[in-house]
Amino acid sequence: MTLKKQLILFFIFLYSFAFSQQTTLNLVCTDKSLSEVITLLEEKYNFLFSYKESDIENIRISTESNQTDIDSFLKKILQNTGLQYEVINDNYIILKKPKNPADPLSQTNHSPAPGLPVLCGSIVDSATQKPLAFASIYFKNKEKG
Known about the structure:
Layout: H1 3-20, E1 25-33, H2 34-45, E2 48-50, H3 53-56, E3 60-68, H4 70-77, E4 84-88, E5 92-96
Parallel strand pairs: 2-5
Antiparallel strand pairs: 1-3, 4-5
């Protein structure tokens, strides 16, 4: 094998190894609101969160994490809050309260409509590249979105 091919293979291996590692968190949170902690994670580590404001209000966090991955950190801070989380594609995080089987309103089927793809991401302003609050996507000629 030529030196050129060996170098190419080496850089491909190095590139794939570098991007396969999880983000390591180093945070100290002293009596911060969960909203502040989420903002910090979004700004410092480029995570994107989805949640209902009413689900996270009045939740205070005090914790210290050194060399922790996002899963361990979320388990720790959400332990006694009644919230669950789901990590999608390593940087999209959904926070939600579990469904209450006794609550008839929670029995609504939120699964995707048949024949429609599932989308996940952010809608941003083209000029500022900042997320647009309360933006929605609807499919043309469909009543679902």
